[in-house]
Amino acid sequence: MATLRERKTYRAQVLRVLYEAVEGNRLLGITGAQLRSDLRIPEQDLAAACTYLAGEGLITVDWEPGNTPAMVTLTHEGIRHMEAEEEEEEGAV
User: Fold this and answer.
1) What is the DSSP letter of 61?
2) Staple partner for 73: which of 29, 47, 68, 82, CB 3.0–4.6 Å?
3) Is 27 part of a structural domain of the chain?
4) Is pLDDT above 90 for 22?
5) The CATH number of the domain where 33 resides is what?
6) Where are the alpha helices (DSSP H) in 1-93?
7) Residue-number span of the structural domain to which 14 is assigned
């Protein structure tokens, strides 16, 4: 099982990869297989990160049997969250 720090890192990575892949368009998504390939994290940790982020209202997930994400998309709130983070990073430079 992942540590708290690893779980937080996985969640942030899922959001970042998803945001970059769909370029802030909530009509687009990314497959769970692509997320796994891009992030190289254990399947159960990817499922846990997606479950958490969906619970926070930042993403939506279509699930395959076996608790595997089939398709993941950002919600409006998820896009706002990532844009705010991007603005903070730009302000820090």
Assistant:
1) E
2) 29
3) yes
4) no
5) 1.10.10.10
6) 4-22, 32-39, 43-55, 76-92
7) 4-86
Which residues are paired to 64 by β-bridges? 68
pLDDT in tens, 64-76: 988 889 999 999 9
Domain presence at residue 93: no
Distance, CA of 30 to CA of 61 (rounded, Å):
10
Count of domains in the chain? 1
Confidence of residue 27 (pLDDT cuts 50, 70, 90): confident
Neighbours of 45 (CB within 10 A): 19
- Say if 25 falls within a structural domain: yes
Cα–Cα distances in angstroms (integers) from residue 17 to residues 1, 63, 65, 66, in the given order: 22, 18, 23, 23
